[in-house]
Amino acid sequence: MKQLVRGFNLLKRTVGMGGGVIALLWAVGCAQPKPETSTAQAVVTPTAQVALVKAEFVGSAACAGCHPAESDLYKTSNHAATLHDFTKSDLKKAVPPEGKIPRTQMLLKSHGDAFQLARIGHEEKTLPIQLAMGSGKTGVTYVSVLEDQSLIEMRESWFPKTKSWYRTPDMRPLKPTEPGILLQGKTARLCLSCHAVTLPDNALIPEKKFYGVGCESCHGAGSTHVTAMQASSRTSIYMDRLKTWGGEKSVQLCGKCHRSVAPVTGIGAGFTNLFQAPGLMKSKCFSQSKDTLSCITCHNPHTNTEKNESVYVKACLQCHSTPTGTPTVLKPFRIVVCPVNAKEKCIGCHMPTVPVRPNTGLTTKMADHFIRKPERSLAEK
Q1: Residue 292: what are its φ and ψ, rounded to 5°?
Q2: Could you give the dihedral angle defined by the CA atoms of residues 69, 70, 76 and 80, in that order, rounded to the nearest 10 degrees?
Q3: Does residue 30 surpass a pLDDT of 90?
Q4: Helix or strand or coil: residue 117?
Q5: Closest by CA position to 30, among listed 205, 152, 161
Q6: Residues 335-355: pLDDT tens digits?
Q7: Rounded to two decimals, what is the model's pTM?
Q8: pLDDT digit string, tens, across residues 81-126
Q9: Domain coordinates of the chain in residue numbers?
Q10: SS3 content of the chain, % helix, strand, coil (to 5)
Q11: Exposed/middle/buried for 207, CB within 10 Å: 0-12, 13-18, 19+?
């Protein structure tokens, strides 16, 4: 405890603690503040199940008995691995190197299995770093959780694949002696809630069984459902099936962590390739789909993003294979077939893969989810 207090005092001297500054989320880092209605429970509470309002979270392992296929996929997914203890035993090969962190006057030091942060020249004063956010697919950002439900998001993130430190995305400019930015209260909880199923009422570090984005992150608290299923009750309480949701509601669910979908209009160049939900909602494919197109049209949320482009082409051809200028019951919108290539290579032209942070040295690329004609450049967005 004394060590934590000393670390917090160090932080107050090294970080200008005015208001908390919030970094936008794209692959690592934290999301900007969201309106009250965008919390996980507000979005995902099943609409026809009043009994679930009082349900408690039980963890994804409780779902495996009845949903083994989805559970097996989920266990190996990046969603399941998006929160870790910042320890050698938990992170294994993804542990960053000890020593001076580039572009800072800060040192990363191990303390047994755990890690601490210290300022060069003041190594006796340390700040414990408890959590690692991110699966390691791109980058991992580290967090120090303080006593008063505040946290420090470290200024530099570690990218295991390139074995390099990069500035945490959208981190404001800091002095070399500043370890990161302070997030407090609701903002701190929102940051961690995108990496955990649920948080304790009066703390920021979740129970281990709630680490990662789990079943209940999308389907809501499941205790009453699990109890009813185990009892083979004829009045069983069922969870919502996301496939029955409209497109906008489904995208909003994903958007609570993959960027809020509220500020869709006026998105600037280079923005829609960072934040998939606003990009998709800006697309004509979305606006003209009569609320049928969503993230799960192309992606299975139980597993990782498919690398085989033919999977996405197949999704495109569900609507773009048979031309019609007249909406029908089955396709309540006008269908246009690509005049250049009507059967393949849709993604490279209409959703180009581009660097997420041009001119920063960061090599990470993503498909721009603003679906558009190839002649519309990023600068024209």
Answers
A1: -110, -25
A2: -160
A3: no
A4: strand
A5: 152
A6: 778 888 888 889 989 999 888
A7: 0.79
A8: 999 999 999 999 899 999 999 999 999 999 999 999 999 999 999 9
A9: 2-215, 242-380
A10: 30, 15, 50
A11: middle
